[in-house]
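Exam revision sheet. Question 4 asks you to relate a sequence to its structure. Input first:
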Amino acid sequence: MSGDAPSEQAAAELVGEAVWRRIHRLAELLRRSGADPSLSELLDAGTAMRHVDVGDRELLRVTLCSVLIKHPQHRAAFDVAFDRCFPARPASDDTRLASPHGPSAAGDRAAGGRHRRRRIRH
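Answer key, structure tokens:
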């Protein structure tokens, strides 16, 4: 994280580099949509991550929204940006794209179901 202010480096160390990058990306998307989270709010978001289970996606959503969103009219933009930055299933772990059986097969297996090939009889 060269070139970052010392306080941003400290925040990244506290919450982990990957989470900090996602928070930073979330702030970028919010700025593009008209919300304008400040640097202090970003740092507050990093500090808040120390006190929540980042594996609990809904708790993470509520926590970041409460820290980064000032006005109710920005909530919808926050939800869209949050879903892009903190997807329910990260794209890098998405096995559906690599499945030879197509998206639904891998999705069924990931959900605990079993995939069965159907034989077509002619």
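Marking note for examiners. The chain has six helices and no strands.
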